[in-house]
Amino acid sequence: MGTEQETKGAPASRSASDVGTPKRTKEIIAKYGFSFKKSLGQNFLIDRNVLNNIVAAAGLDETKGALEIGPGIGALTGRLAETAGRVTAIEIDQRLIPILTDIFAEEEHVTVIHGDVLKIDLPELFRKQFDGLAGVSVVANLPYYVTTPILMKLLEERLPLEHIVVMIQKEVAQRMAAKPGGKEYGSLSVAVQYYCVPELVCTVPHTVFIPQPNVDSAVIKLTLRDKPAVDVPDEAFFFRVVQASFAQRRKTLANNLTAFVGKERREALNELLTAIGIDPGRRGETLSLEEFALLSRSLRDAGLAS
Ligand code: SAM
Q1: Which domain, by its residues, includes 142?
Q2: In this structure, which residue's CA is closest to atom 12 in ligand 1?
Q3: Helix 170-177 crosses helix 187-195 at what angle (to 10 degrees)?
Q4: What is the pLDDT of residues 153-193, one digit of tens each?
Q5: Of the residues 224, 252, 285, which one is the last residue of a structural domain?
């Protein structure tokens, strides 16, 4: 697959499952002369309890597979290898590949792939790595600089996933799980909840990472729905309507949507909103997924926007 390189082999030095401790992390960093790249969101986990909580939330067993994004030096990978039947980890930083190869040399069911998760053909990877398993989940301590693009890629590609259990920035986790009516509810909440049922697993202090990030973190579990939460004939249009409704949060729905449909259609828009039982003076952040679905269907049927 392009520049990707699959790795297995080379003699292991010590157990792969004890990587996520402060002592072992410091040893590995010193042994390989590794230096952290802030630009790649490299904050490695050094707390067994947090690692256990992440793995437990994913409900893995030997019949299931785990896809890890960004294994680092393998703190989470080691715990996943103890629990899942198959573990595939995608790491962008070439410098980490020989380290991971070394640490997981004796773990036949672990594969490390060098690549950028945003560029990898994930459906193809799933066919190659996870064929025949009872279920696959993404389990990761994500690089915070690309959390949303990574999650949206996983969701939009409709991968056959059971759960996505990820450590992310606390504020982003709260936005994903937010209910209508609050200031955290926005287009990210709608997008995530369209595909999944979100659940906040725990919040995590920055002291459990080396180096420590500047932000607080949380573990969120997203359980993929069998079918989207609402039925919309044109998904792309639905998401455009959602984006437009949140374009300027202080503005009313009618004002935000006028910018979307065009000023000359303002009156028709107000009539349509009233006819479907949505007060034009409401703000986007008060609309449920069902109301966004109704709104997008009605706008499309009325030909007010396309
Ligand atoms: N899983 C390890 C842990 O918990 O200790 C490391 C987590 S660290 C927050 C994020 C990891 O993602 C780093 O190893 C980084 O190099 C890797 N990474 C960053 N961007 C990536 C991308 N686009 N694709 C794959 N891996 C990426």
Answers
A1: 4-224
A2: 70
A3: 70
A4: 999 999 999 999 999 999 999 999 999 999 999 999 999 99
A5: 224
